[in-house]
Design a protein that fits this description.
mainly alpha; about 75% helix; 434 Repressor (Amino-terminal Domain); 7 helices
């Protein structure tokens, strides 16, 4: 199984879904692990600027990513997370918000350095 043309957020979802149907599938487990490695590289700034720009460009074409980024609540959450640690801690308690943030991290839009 191969990565989704570096759409790591989509690959992650697909591997996870596959493992719900076949939890012992070594190829799916390996793909999931490799996808996590690539996501971690991007989220911690371990890819070059060109690669990061390409990932972000692909992500910005995704309607789900566009929806998250255009949501006024999520825009405020992202602002708070970069400027207000107390508010950021509160946001992290909300599973829906964290799922959206994780989606942005997986897509390469948000970094956690």
């Amino acid at each position: 199984m191969e990565f989704f043309t570096k759409q790591y957020d989509k690959a992650l979802e697909t591997y996870q879904l596959g493992l719900t149907h076949d939890p012992q599938n070594e190829e799916l487990k390996d793909g999931l692990m490799r996808t996590h490695v690539e996501i971690r590289k991007a989220s911690t700034g371990q890819v070059d600027e060109k690669e990061m720009a390409e990932r972000q460009q692909r992500a910005m074409a995704d309607p789900e990513i566009q929806g998250i980024l255009s949501d006024p609540v999520m825009r405020q959450v992202l602002q708070d997370m970069s400027t207000d640690t107390k508010a950021a801690a509160q946001h992290q308690k909300n599973p829906e918000v964290m799922a959206k943030i994780q989606k942005l991290i997986n897509a390469g839009i948000v970094q956690t350095r």
